[in-house]
Amino acid sequence: MKKGLLSSTALVAATVLTAGVAAAAEAPTYKVNGNMQFMLLNESQDLMFGATSTKTTTSSSVVTSIKQTGGPDHGYYFAVVDPEIKFTMSGTADNGLNYGFKVEMNANTTDTMPVDEAVVQLSGSWGKLELGDEDGAEDTMQLGGESVMGGSGGIDGSYGLVLASAGFGGFSVPFVRTGPALVGDTSDSTKITYYTPNFSGLSAGVSFTPTQKDGDNVAGSGAWEDSIGLGVKYSGEFGGVSIAASGVYVTAAATPLIFGFVTTEDVSSWSVGGTVGFGPAVVGASYTDNGESLQPIGSGITDSYWNVGVGYTAGPIYVSAGYAAYTMENGAQEATRDVISLTADYSVAPGLTAYGEVVMSSEDVDVISPLLSNDATIIILGASLSF
User: Is residue 32 situated within a structural domain?
Assistant: First the structure.
């Protein structure tokens, strides 16, 4: 099967390179752009970030001690987030083939990898082909409430940098999520992705990613292998109302990790969502079901979430509000997080935006007894710059 897949991929690539209509070649053009954010984060929460406490309960004559992990709590922090420099090149061949590449450089002082994305892009009337380290179709085509949030991202923003978690020892449900995540998302692992042309607002994409590795670090594997990511997206406008909808799915085989044995479930995750815009207002929502993807075999742990967001533009001001509910279950045991976010952006000048954001997170981990929890309010003031 793998040999057949590789042969088909080679055939597609060869066809792409020779396909096209006669056209005048265009000399390559080059562009450099980038972005970064500087922010102040102020947090107030029940559980100190980095601290450790122990709750003890007696149930059926059994004493259970459960640790909540989180260190000294400073209360406020400065952060530099997402500083990136992007280099792109694009040109057109004599046969009409559009070609180019993109290299995205990490610029943060804490980044261990200098390059985030590096991809060759080929396109024409037949669609678009991406070869390299780039997000897959399961990510680029996904829509939801996070798609309309301002600030640092609101329900999908930077609040998790200072959020403590109601951790626990020996319990089979892991920490509940702090933001939207499709389990098995291939991120920037090296892959091949094909996107169809747009047919009356409808397009689709498929990605194949052999392992979690990227660049020339090809040996070895990760938590999964042979991933296939699928995405379908529609966008259109009817009577002044813009509508966009998406459906994505990712499947992959769990990698044997211990003495050649597979210890986790295969990946099978999906998400549906969309946005609706009318005048200065826009609404987005999604539901994601990660099932038992990459959970320990036989644990019965399931993972899902849903969210909704609304945004409104008034001149240089953009405001948004969002709500997200995350759930991880294991029979009668459950871990949940509810997140509410309010953001306000002000466009100071082209490429410069100032913003404020308030995030309220409520986490409960029901270990039958006791109930572990952490309620937090996080305020973020920041500036976003791009060129």
Answer: no
**In CATH, what number is assigned to the domain containing residue 250?**
2.40.160.10
Beta strand segments in 93-218, E: 98-106, 115-124, 127-133, 190-195, 202-209
pLDDT in tens, the chain (387 residues): 455 454 445 444 444 554 544 456 778 999 999 999 999 999 998 876 544 444 444 333 333 444 444 444 688 999 999 999 999 999 999 999 999 999 999 989 888 878 889 999 999 999 999 999 999 999 999 999 999 999 999 999 999 998 887 654 334 445 678 889 999 999 999 999 999 999 999 999 999 999 999 999 988 889 999 999 999 999 999 999 999 999 999 999 999 987 789 999 999 999 999 999 999 999 999 999 999 999 989 888 899 999 999 999 999 999 999 999 999 888 777 889 999 999 999 999 999 999 999 999 998 877 654 567 888 999 999 999 999
Which structural domain, as residue segments, surrounds residue 339? 46-386
Number of domains into which the chain is organized = 1
Q: Assess contact for 32 and 86: CB atoms under 8 A.
A: yes
pTM of the model: 0.86
List Cα–Cα distances, 222 to 65, 66, 186, 227, 309, in angstroms: 33, 30, 11, 11, 34
Question: Does residue 3 lie within any of the structural domains?
Answer: no
Residue 23 belongs to some domain of the structure: no
The answer to the question of residue 275 being in a domain is: yes
